[in-house]
């Protein structure tokens, strides 16, 4: 824990991964654990962990990257995942920067600071869990938690050269995760190695009666799946994942990875996910609709900083929201409110739900015949700070290869698979069947 803080003091001025640190308390916790040590074999005993700032931590400020929650200094409870981490005797050392309310792909939508990519600080770390990925890449922590609604764990993991898994929807409790789009959000681990990742998922996964969407499905020992053996593994490679927009360097890295799988005894074939071209449009309708409902609670009364000098109650709501939310959050709330409004609901929201089913069916059909789906995590490596910030549509398009996985609800991991000529990491995405994280980990570990 001490080494972690030393490293943070050394590099975080530049990387800016952490929003809130609690050194005294964390050192105290570590000391108490050490004193009571005995023969403790808790998997994460004494390990320092960073937590994305949309996951509620008792007594530790939780801002969601938003000025609206800048005073949420003393949450009254822990998210279920944080309780589980503490039961496994790890030490939560601080809260990690993110795009405001997890809306973004570069961390530039944080209302506090823009986290930088540790490989080259002119580049973004990805988002929205940019702080979670950068903190691991910079060696500030070896374990962090992120959340993934449309790619927010896998995309920053790819940009920062670390391992990030979005579990199956329902695998990990969302209790205490500030909701963005409830039918898509999942918490997941970001680590340096696949093995670490498996340990962390083992710790946080499982049924929770505080989350009605958490699934009552047994949690296997994921670390047991890391056999190194992928002989006979059947890999599907969607042609849509290597087409237009994917840079030649990314394509070459993925092809090299497939070659390695062949050498290890796996086989691969090209398949099609024909509806994935509608995924970005579908996602932005559904995610924004859900966000517009979820974010209604931030009204300056129940949650959020209250605007001063308002004359009437309605005025107070309006001013609090106008001052508290950043531009991207407002854009999504307006888009979602529009899509859900009467007269438009059938044309947009309902249509998007129907297309979501087609996308999910595409994945299920391919995964009937194959063990995993493999492709790039992102079409390009990290882009420069400022490059896309004024162009939301280009920013949205960056998630084209991660979003379909959330819409389908299946698990997906990003593992490093090479570097661009500029020395920036490239990520390989491995997607599995519902609740079959074991095979995803096995495939990722053999490749690593
Ligand atoms: N970048 C996507 C968005 O802005 C995904 C974010 C996420 O997964 N939280 O919505």
TrEMBL record:
Pfam families reported in the protein's UniProt record: Amidase
Record Gene3D superfamilies: Amidase signature (AS) domain
**Keyword annotations:** ATP-binding, Ligase, Nucleotide-binding, Protein biosynthesis
Give the residues annotated as active site.
52 (charge relay system), 128 (charge relay system), 152 (acyl-ester intermediate)
* Similarity annotation: Belongs to the amidase family. GatA subfamily.
Entry function: Allows the formation of correctly charged Gln-tRNA(Gln) through the transamidation of misacylated Glu-tRNA(Gln) in organisms which lack glutaminyl-tRNA synthetase. The reaction takes place in the presence of glutamine and ATP through an activated gamma-phospho-Glu-tRNA(Gln).
The name this protein carries in UniProt is Glutamyl-tRNA(Gln) amidotransferase subunit A
Which species is this record about?
Thalassobacillus hwangdonensis
């Amino acid at each position: 824990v001490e080494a972690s803080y030393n490293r943070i003091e050394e590099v975080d001025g530049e990387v800016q991964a952490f929003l809130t640190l609690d050194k005294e308390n964390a050192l105290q916790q570590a000391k108490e654990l050490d004193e009571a040590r005995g023969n403790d074999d808790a998997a994460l005993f004494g390990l320092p962990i960073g937590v994305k700032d949309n996951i509620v931590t008792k007594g530790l400020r939780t801002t969601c990257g938003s000025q609206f929650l800048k005073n949420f200094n003393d949450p009254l409870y822990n998210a279920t995942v944080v309780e589980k981490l503490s039961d496994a005797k790890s030490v939560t050392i601080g809260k990690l920067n993110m795009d405001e309310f997890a809306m973004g792909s570069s961390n530039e939508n944080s209302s506090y600071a823009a986290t930088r990519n540790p490989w080259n600080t002119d580049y973004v770390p990805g988002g929205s869990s940019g702080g979670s990925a950068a903190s691991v890449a910079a060696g500030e922590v070896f374990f962090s938690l992120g959340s993934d609604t449309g790619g927010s764990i896998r995309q920053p993991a790819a940009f920062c050269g670390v391992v990030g898994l979005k579990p199956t929807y329902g695998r990990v409790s969302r209790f205490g995760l500030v909701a963005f789009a409830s039918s898509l959000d999942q918490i997941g681990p970001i680590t340096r190695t696949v093995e670490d990742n498996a340990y962390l998922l083992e710790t946080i996964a499982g049924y929770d009666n505080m989350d009605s969407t958490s699934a009552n499905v047994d949690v296997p020992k994921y670390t047991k799946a890391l056999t190194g053996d992928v002989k006979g593994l059947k890999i599907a490679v969607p042609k849509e994942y290597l087409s237009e927009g994917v840079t030649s360097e990314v394509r070459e890295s993925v092809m090299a990875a497939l070659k390695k799988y062949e050498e290890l005894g796996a086989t691969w074939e090209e398949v099609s996910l024909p509806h994935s071209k509608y995924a970005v449009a579908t996602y932005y309708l559904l995610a924004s609709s859900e966000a517009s409902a979820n974010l209604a609670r931030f009204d300056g009364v129940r949650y959020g900083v209250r605007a001063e000098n308002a004359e009437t109650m309605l005025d107070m709501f309006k001013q609090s929201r106008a001052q508290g939310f950043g531009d991207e959050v407002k854009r999504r709330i307006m888009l979602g409110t529009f899509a859900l409004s009467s007269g438009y609901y059938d044309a947009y929201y309902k249509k998007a739900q129907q297309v979501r089913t087609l996308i999910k069916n595409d994945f299920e059909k391919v995964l009937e015949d194959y063990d995993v789906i493999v492709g790039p995590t992102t079409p390009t490596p990290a882009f420069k700070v400022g490059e896309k910030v004024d162009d939301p549509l280009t920013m949205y398009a960056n998630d084209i290869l991660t979003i379909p996985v959330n819409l389908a609800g299946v698990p997906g991991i990003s593992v490093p698979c090479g570097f661009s000529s500029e020395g920036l990491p490239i990520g390989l995405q491995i997607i599995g069947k519902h609740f079959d994280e074991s095979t995803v980990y096995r495939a990722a570990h053999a490749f690593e």
